[in-house]
Structure formats: C-alpha cells, structure tokens
Design brief:
The chain contains four helices and nine strands. By secondary structure, it is α+β, with helices and mostly antiparallel strands. The structure holds adenosine-5'-triphosphate and magnesium ion (MG).
Amino acid sequence: MRLFIAIDLPDSIRAALSREQARLRAACAGNKDIRWTRPEGVHVTLKFLGEVAAPRLPEVIGVLSKFGSFDSFEIEVAGFGFFPSARRPRVFWAGLEAPPALAHLAGRIEAAMEPLGFPREDREFHPHLTLARIESQRPQPVLQAALDQGGPANFGRFAASEFFLFESKLKPGGAEYSRLARFAGSDGSSS
Ligand code: ATP
Ligand code: MG
C-alpha cells in the first residue's frame, strides 16, 4: 500500500480553494497538459512513505501513536506558485504561511520514521497544496492569465492540531486518498 502523512484542510478552506481551482480549470479547459488534483484530496504533505507492505501498517501506526504531542499552530492558505518555477512548471500549488512549527513537525515525523527504513528527504521541506501537475513542464500562459485576472488569492487560516496517515490509490482520474489513522496534537486525543 502507498502511504503518506499529511495535515488535512478544514471544509471552509477546502471549499474556497475548490471554487478557485474550478475557475482556473475552466479557464484552461481542453488543456490536457494540466492534470488537476481532486479538490477533496488536497492536503499538506508532511512525509511521503511510498509503498509499504500491509503487515507493516501496525508498526507505522504504533510509532506515530507514540510520537507524542505537539502544540497546534496556525496555517494560512494564500497565493499560488509553481515548482520548480513558472518557466519550467511541474507542480502548480497554493501557498502556505506557517510558523517554523510546521517544518519542525515534519522534521520530527521524518526522524521518527527513519528507523523504520524510510529515508530522509534530501530536498528541503517546501509545504504547499498541489492543485495541478503540468505534464510537459512548459509555461502555462492561459493559466497565468487566469491567475492574473483573479481576485486576492486568500483562502483563510486554520489551526493545525492533528495529522493523518493516508493511503493513496493511484487512479486514472487522479490519486484517491483515504485516512487510515488520526494523530492529535496536545489539544485533542489521538485515535
Ligand atoms: P499522482 O502520483 O497520480 O500524480 P499524487 O502525487 O497526488 O498523485 P501520490 O504520488 O500517492 O499521489 O502522493 C501522495 C502525496 O505524497 C502527495 O502529496 C505527493 O505530492 C506526495 N509525494 C509523492 N511522491 C513523493 C516523493 N517522492 N517525495 C515527496 N513527496 C511525495
Ligand atoms: Mg505522485
């Protein structure tokens, strides 16, 4: 099974982001070069685990359960951008404004997972919300124009107080995610 660890969005932010994604998608209608993500699956990836044999699932959940608490922190969803750049776009994303606590949490999770055989990322942590992937990695003037025509891209702020272990199922219409386990910060009880 394909696993990753992520923070989910509250419904209000997901809805606002989904409306803007739909507007941009409509502006780019017919462009098969752009693969849009499912709005219901948009998330803040903390750690990608990749393929894990099903019998190892209890071990992964066990380590995350013993992970300990973390203080909740605020995340603001605002702005758009491209990885690695607008000139050579591979990922189209919505931006996150977060305190160092977010990267710190991702780092702690990564350190907890390493002894189970999940290697650390060699790339820096750039938290974001993936809205689309560009197959050709060619610049997208139509998408850019739609972005320039849009209003202020601010989708609100929320308190990050929990994260989830997700399973990802790769499907032709885009990956489908399901929550396997929830891990709460100090403000709630984990389950
Ligand atoms: P698809 O692969 O079909 O485009 P997806 O990328 O959304 O869909 P997954 O590949 O299962 O689905 O990825 C799940 C999450 O983990 C996503 O947030 C993705 O960006 C992230 N992810 C995937 N591969 C890696 C990787 N090698 N390193 C870091 N994060 C990754
Ligand atoms: Mg992927």
